């Protein structure tokens, strides 16, 4: 984008003065995995398919926010690749003139078949969830025995040439310690950025406890036993991860300290659930119903007004570390990663 175009882009500011540039769009709450930090093992109640926003409705919202100053989109789930014909949606979003970047968060199971079509449709970047390289640990946390399919999906994604591939690993105490260096070495060998995410209270079984969190400083201590890390300046102003490069110049990692050192002051994103509810924070207890507006025949101006009103009250932070913290009613798979 030219310097002139950058100056012309509108700026969207929330009630705390933060610049909002990113919309995360959940396209389904369904998933083929049952990760322990996200979903119950059995008897999951999914949304009726008629409640999901259509591709045209999603694109309408994306068009509206792109005119307000948002230029980055991320498609999430559940597992977004379970949504039929997803490359069609990617292409529709890529054709919006004010959208610069479209990314996808996925468990990679279906990427062997879909990576090429997604890349051709305009998808730029991938975030892939992979918490363990040990087969038994992978099966334990995902409740599915399919590590090789995930690794094959990553390999295919590298082959088709995505601009960026990041691996997201949720860090849980007494589980993740032995996996951290394995993942780091995989990242260095395959030119993947590994991002470690502190375990957050979004599990459907509600078994989260602070004592189960492997904190960011503990992750860094493990990595520093073998590698020297160099902090990357101002990385939190771009995204949720504190980033570090390796002193030998071979790759980088990210640490998302959502519990121990929240990045809320730099939050630049809002979210929309698969059934069209706008959430101004991952841990919001309030939702703003965009689907209701859209299906009542609302104009783009009506939708913009609803979004602006919601942003006035965007939360200062998520309150995980406060006595007043209140868990969202929805689990992670129903909010959107």
Here the CATH topology equals TIM Barrel
Gross morphology is globular
State mean pLDDT (0 to 100 scale): 92
Strand content: 15-25%
Share of helical residues: 25-40%
**What is the architecture at the second tier of CATH?**
Alpha-Beta Barrel
Rg: 19 Å
Following the backbone from N to C, one meets helices and strands in this order, namely HEHEHEHEHHEHEHEEEEEEHHH
Largest sheet: 12 strands, mixed
Give an account of the 3D structure.
This protein has 337 residues and is α/β, with parallel strands linked by helices. The protein has one domain (3-335): Alpha-Beta Barrel (TIM Barrel), CATH 3.20.20.70. It is 31% helix and 17% strand. Helix 2 packs parallel to helix 3 and helix 3 (86-94) runs parallel beside helix 4. It is globular and about 55 Å long. The two termini are 28 Å apart. Mean pLDDT is 92; it is low at 1-5.
């Amino acid at each position: 984008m030219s310097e002139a175009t950058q100056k012309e882009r509108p700026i969207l500011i929330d009630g705390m003065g933060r610049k909002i540039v990113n919309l995360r769009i959940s396209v389904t709450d369904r998933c083929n995995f049952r990760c322990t930090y996200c979903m119950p093992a059995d008897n999951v109640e999914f949304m009726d398919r008629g409640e999901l926003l259509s591709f045209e409705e999603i694109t309408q919202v994306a068009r509206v926010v792109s005119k307000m100053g948002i230029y980055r989109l991320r498609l999430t789930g559940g597992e977004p690749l379970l949504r039929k014909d997803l490359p069609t949606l990617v292409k529709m979003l890529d054709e919006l003139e004010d959208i610069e970047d479209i990314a996808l968060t996925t468990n990679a199971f279906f990427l062997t078949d879909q990576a090429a079509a997604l890349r051709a449709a305009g998808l730029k970047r991938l975030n892939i969830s992979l918490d363990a390289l040990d087969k038994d640990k992978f099966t334990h946390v995902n409740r599915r025995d399919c590590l090789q399919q995930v690794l094959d999906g990553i390999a295919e994604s590298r082959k088709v040439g995505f601009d960026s591939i990041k691996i997201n690993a949720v860090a849980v105490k007494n589980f993740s310690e032995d996996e951290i260096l394995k993942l780091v070495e995989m990242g260095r060998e395959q030119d993947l950025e590994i991002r470690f995410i502190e375990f957050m209270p979004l599990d459907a079984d509600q078994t989260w406890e602070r004592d189960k969190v492997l904190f960011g400083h503990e992750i860094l201590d493990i990595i520093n036993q073998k590698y020297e890390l160099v902090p990357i300046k101002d990385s939190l102003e771009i995204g949720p991860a504190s980033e570090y490069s390796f002193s030998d110049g071979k790759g980088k990692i990210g640490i998302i300290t959502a519990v121990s050192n929240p990045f809320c002051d730099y939050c630049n994103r809002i979210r929309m659930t698969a059934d069209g509810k706008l959430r101004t924070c991952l841990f919001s207890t309030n939702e703003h119903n965009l689907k209701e507006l859209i299906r009542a025949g609302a104009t783009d101006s009506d939708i913009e007004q609803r979004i602006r009103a919601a942003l006035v009250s965007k939360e200062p932070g998520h309150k995980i570390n406060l006595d007043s913290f209140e868990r969202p009613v929805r689990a992670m798979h129903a909010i959107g990663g």
